[in-house]
Amino acid sequence: MSQPLITPQLNINGTSAEELMEQQIAVLDGVRELLSAMRKARPHGRDFRTNAAFIHADRAWEERIKAVVALNSELLEHTDALARARDERLRPARP
């Protein structure tokens, strides 16, 4: 992706850390569902008249699956960063 995801700056006037985490988890769940559906819908050789057409279709599908896997990894890193920011904010100040 060309634009990096930026972790929100948690503050008392913004969305709560818990709500932000719930939103991120919902997004990750959706991406996992998408990956599952894509793997089920992957081309099968019996649906193509030639092996060459099947190989082309399968490679194209694999590219898209890899793109979604990469998106999932990026979103997971973003969620982890948000969790660290939340945990840091909740940590008591040292005397």
What this model shows, in words?
The protein has a domain at 51-83. Helix content is 67%, strand content 0%. It contains two helices and no strands.
What is the helix fraction of residues, given as a range?
55-70%
Shape: elongated
Rg, nearest Å: 20 Å
Percentage beta strand: under 5%
Which series of helices and strands comes N to C? HH
Number of helices: 2
Compute the average pLDDT: 93
State the secondary-structure class.
Answer: mainly alpha
In short:
The protein has 95 residues and is mainly alpha-helical. The protein contains two helices and no strands.
Sum up the structure in keywords:
elongated; single chain; 2 helices; mainly alpha; 95 residues
SSE layout:
Layout: H1 17-40, H2 51-90
Helix pairs in contact: 1-2
